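Table S2 (text version). Query chain:
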Amino acid sequence: MPRRARLLADLTPLRESPAFRRLWAGSTLSSVGGSLTTFAVALQVYRITGSPFAVGAIGIAQMVPLLTAGLLGGTVADATDRRRLVLITSSALAVVSAAFAIQSFAGLQVVWLLYGLVAVQSAIQAVASPAKATFVPALLPPSQLPAGLMLNRLSFQVMLTAGPALAGLITATPGLGLRACYALDVLTFTGSLYAVARLPEMKPQPGAPRPGLRAAAEGVSFIGRTQVLAGAFLADLCATVFGLPVALFPAINAERFGGNPAILGLFMASIGVGGLVSGALSGPALRTARQGRAMLLAVAVWGGAFAGFAVAPWLWLTLGCLALAGAADTFTVVFRGAIVQSVTPDALRGRVLAADYVVGAGGGELGSLEAGALGSLTSPAISALTGGLITVAAAVAIAVAMPAFARYRRPADEPSAPELEPAAPAVS
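Corresponding structure-token output:
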């Protein structure tokens, strides 16, 4: 294999699995559309209220239903046909996006309506995401699972960087504005719905428990008694709670660079660029068999990068540290996903992935709270430095305390699964 090909991201899943290719393309299109609505909601709330607090309250409207419905959503995914569940929830999300568009075209200026739509959207996504995450191991053989997860992460990075920029251009164009952002989001659901409709049935395992708290508790119990899973979840939680000082970015920018808004924008852009570059050049890293150790190393690099960001005196070094953090985050997410998907039996996969979704979404919010609180008590730089160093120390401690996780190797390659196609005629 040519050296350059070995360096680049592995595109084998896109070449060999038409079902995965359709799903990836449709999901990428839909996620970019979703980022248009995310941008538009924040801007519309600010235009109505003129209050940064009101914009921040959008996060509360998202978090409460996410945490409430997240774990229960996994029990539904394990007890029903996952393809049908994703079709239903995706259709419901399209209806919510249409409601956003309708209120914008109608000229409504009602903040509580926007909060309510955001809350409904978040609750539906909490049910849809774990079910949709089970598609990757169903469509790809174990040997292609890390590559498939990396491609999904690249899709996320594309959304993270291209979505807001596209939304800004659309909003600033005369005759388009927020209404066009909402309308385009509705249209982008077409690709995702088509890809899911082409999948075969994915019925639950025989004897699947009824959805509810007891079934959710079984998933959490499985994580607790499986050291490999517990280590992966704990490592990710430490990284997001202690090593994610996004709440400190404005204060550090003000102290170090005079509060220039353009530089503040570069902070987040650098993380996204780092993630894109590492994903595109992920070939060698994804071939490692020691996935537990690789994830811990990525977590330590993540923490060390933010510690460097806290004390970097020059802009180029500050942005470089943030780019390094973004690169490490990409590998952390992919290795964690590969471990979780490989270790979890299919009968529990929805519930475990629901817990993974809640930890990933909730950890960032807790991290912002922790960083902001410590930054208020000490200083923003001390808070970011302390959190980064704690993350590095946590990675070392987990390696010592949970040796089964640190020694975890990916399963041996198995023959490729046959291409999954629906028995019924394709949906057009």
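Notes on Table S2: The chain has two domains: 1-147+158-206, 212-410. The radius of gyration is 21 Å.
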